[in-house]
Design goal:
Number of domains: 2
Shape: elongated
Number of strands: 24
Strand content: 25-35%
Structural class: alpha+beta
Mean pLDDT: 84
Number of helices: 7
Helix content: 10-25%
């Protein structure tokens, strides 16, 4: 049972957190309205879409799905879709449109919103009800991304109508230092009459592409065009059948195929990028204060455990992943001052503390979701979804997760308080690390806390 004083402190901390998130949400909403353009011309670089093909006979189908990705000073993504519903249940999917973007660094421009009915075409862009929503799906887990959903409610949309929409999203997270990567879904849970993906890049900047996913199905027809010093790779498909998805399948099972694009030539490029992010700086007196219990420990083993206990139990988990903070960790001094952080913040703090104790420690980028076949992907930072710490001590290597709580005791204990997932992929962010991501299995040499 919580004591009254502790309960008051907990409620006050929760109140402060909610005030912080509310202020961030209000700022993001205002920024979203400024970064949204309702009527904008189609960019000159866009390849004209073909005439709308006939709809496939299905409750819900896509007549046109045209996505064009352009690598430029400001990368852009042009989307042109035409959707049709033949029953009331499917009409719900068409009538409520949701587009997500990051107003911190992206601009969303709407080009057209048309309804085709009985041979007539109506322009609905001016009259559509457009709202900006803060839908932080990870809020209950203490995760705030700053993403804004543009919700478009279509009045008077009927069964049999075709809804045609076109828009462009421009901008990229500066944390990736103008290195390009993107992806486009190829398969879909509904039939598609015409599918096209265009990758438009300068001829002097090679960008790799790869079709990821299971074998079989209709393969894209690939062609190339060159114009004005640019290379256009075009992936086309016609009359693509619906792909069935198993809702109970593991997260790492690729049920549908998708196109991956990446400018990273090797995993060493990814490692070099991560190294530039995980620079600790000098946290000063705050670090000395935090390290005092560890420095008073009788052994290095005990000192490392106390450092881990401090980061796990005294720094609460909260992720404000806005802009560059989606991947750039906060400086240890800032984390110590505010007493919260996410996996990358806490990992950099722990690495800094362990190195101050004279121990060998490095941050490690982890893909928890991808348990196998990491070799099928092109090198890209986007494949990693977690950060932990590698510690070498006493002739053994340990992988520590500073986001876990209540780790106490000794490295040598027989009961593991938390282990890494049974299988996971990681790449070590350390100088000279050039290897591809390594698949780890849960074992005595790859446990978080013993």
């Amino acid at each position: 049972m919580l004591r009254p004083r502790f309960l008051r402190l907990a409620l006050f901390a929760l109140f402060l957190m909610m005030c912080t998130l509310r202020a961030e949400a209000d700022t993001a909403s205002r920024r979203a309205e400024q970064a949204f353009v309702r009527h904008a011309p189609v960019p000159a670089w866009v390849l004209p879409s073909p005439a709308l093909p006939e709809a496939i006979d299905a409750p819900f189908s896509v007549r046109l799905n045209d996505v064009q990705l352009r690598l430029d000073a400001q990368p852009a993504s042009y989307v042109h879709r035409a959707l049709v519903a033949r029953d009331m249940g499917s009409l719900q999917q068409v009538a409520n449109i949701e587009l997500s973007f990051q107003p911190e660094y992206e601009v969303l421009q709407m080009h057209q919103l048309l309804v085709h009915r009985d041979g007539r075409t109506e322009d609905r862009l001016g009259s559509a009800d457009i709202r900006f929503l803060q839908r932080e799906r990870g809020l209950e887990q203490g995760m705030y991304s700053g993403s804004v959903t543009v919700a478009i409610v279509m009045p008077d949309l009927r069964v049999g109508d075709t809804l045609e929409i076109a828009y462009t999203t421009t901008g990229a997270n500066p944390v990736f230092e103008n290195r390009y990567m993107d992806a486009a879904q190829w398969d879909a849970p509904f039939p598609v009459a015409y599918r096209r993906v265009v990758l438009d890049t300068p001829e002097g900047r090679p960008v790799g592409h790869r079709l990821i996913g299971p074998a079989g199905g209709t393969l894209p027809v690939v062609s190339e065009q060159r114009r004005d010093g640019r290379l256009l790779r075009v992936f086309e498909g016609r009359k693509l059948p619906a792909t069935l998805f198993d809702a109970g399948a593991p997260r790492d099972v690729q049920a549908a195929r998708w196109l991956q694009f990446s400018e990273y030539a090797s995993w060493s490029d990814v490692n070099a990028w991560a190294l530039r992010l995980f620079q600790a700086g000098a946290p000063g007196k705050a670090l000395d204060t935090a390290l005092a219990p560890a420095r008073a420990a009788p052994t290095l083993d005990a000192a490392a455990m106390r450092a881990l206990e401090f980061v796990q139990n005294d720094i609460r988990y909260l992720s404000l992943s806005l802009g560059e903070n989606s991947h750039r960790p906060a400086p240890p001094a800032e984390v110590l001052a505010r007493r919260y952080g996410d996996c990358k913040d806490k990992s950099l703090l722990l690495v800094t503390m362990l190195r101050a104790l004279g121990l060998e420690a490095d941050p490690v980028l982890v893909s928890v979701a991808l348990h196998k076949n990491m070799g099928q992907y092109l090198p890209s930072p986007m494949l990693f979804d977690h950060a932990i710490v590698r510690l070498a001590i006493g002739g053994r290597t340990y992988f520590l997760d500073p986001t876990r709580q209540a780790s106490t005791g000794s490295w040598r204990g027989s009961a593991s308080r938390w282990r890494v997932p049974r299988c996971w992929w990681c790449t070590r962010a350390a100088p000279g690390s050039t290897a591809s991501p390594t698949r780890r299995r849960r074992s005595a040499s790859a446990v978080a806390n013993r």
